[in-house]
Specification:
transcription cis-regulatory region binding, Homeodomain-like_sf, Tetracycline Repressor, domain 2, mainly alpha, Arc Repressor Mutant, subunit A
Length: 227
């Protein structure tokens, strides 16, 4: 482990924070959130745990910051994916289906983000200060507003309020479906041992596309029957 040298300037602090975040991202390529410990993160960064805590107040604060950055990056990709895959002249239900397909593909290619979303409410938000929680929620709000704007642009029939609800529900669905589609080894073994259980192992992208499409179409129907 290298001897700790205090970062004197804001630029140095930013570089060190980025190093910690990048190391955490690399670890999430190898393990789930539950297995990522602050001790191992500190070891890989090359700093004592107490020194890592100079930059982030907890393991959860590191991961929330990482989630915030990952969500912002994906939003730009979703914008491109929707523009490329959704025909704005198609009927509303067809546009909803195309949007669901593009969204499912985009999220499926970002497993780290999905893993973090699956742990957000139940784990990551449980060991942080009000300051960290507020900063994270403000970033999450901006990402949700951005996603809602993209949805409304290609599916204007939803209107602003339903677009916002749809954006929030999509994020909830991503986290929930990721958890259920990536069960523990013992559960996977149970599925292999008893074929009658196989239907309970849902493929993530397929399930996300189906549920998002169903939800968006339902919102369209609700809007058509609500003044």
């Amino acid at each position: 482990m290298t001897a700790f040298q205090r970062a004197r300037s804001e630029e140095q602090r930013t570089v060190r924070r980025q190093s910690i975040l990048q190391t955490a991202a690399t670890m999430l390529d190898e393990m789930p959130v539950a297995a990522l410990s602050l001790n191992e993160l500190s070891r890989r960064v090359g700093l004592a745990k107490s020194n890592v805590l100079r930059y982030f107040e907890s393991r959860e604060a590191v991961l929330l910051d990482l989630l915030d950055h990952a969500a912002a990056e994906l939003l730009a990709e979703i914008d491109e994916a929707l523009q490329s895959n959704v025909d704005p002249s198609a009927p509303p239900h067809s546009r909803a289906q195309s949007m669901a397909s593009a969204l499912a593909t985009s999220f499926a290619t970002h497993p780290m983000l999905c893993e973090l979303l699956s742990a957000q409410a139940g784990v990551l938000e449980r060991n942080v200060s009000i300051e960290v929680a507020t900063r994270y929620k403000q970033g999450a709000r901006d990402s949700l507003v951005g996603l809602a704007t993209l949805l409304q642009r290609l599916l204007p029939e939803l209107k602003e309020e339903r677009s916002a609800r749809a954006a929030s529900m999509i994020i909830i669905l991503v986290g929930a479906l990721w958890t259920h589609s990536h069960p523990a080894p013992a559960v996977l073994a149970a599925y292999d041992a008893d074929p009658s259980l196989a239907f309970m192992h849902v493929p993530f992208a397929e399930a996300l596309e189906q549920t998002v499409a169903t939800f968006l179409v339902g919102m369209l129907i609700e809007g058509a029957h609500t003044p």
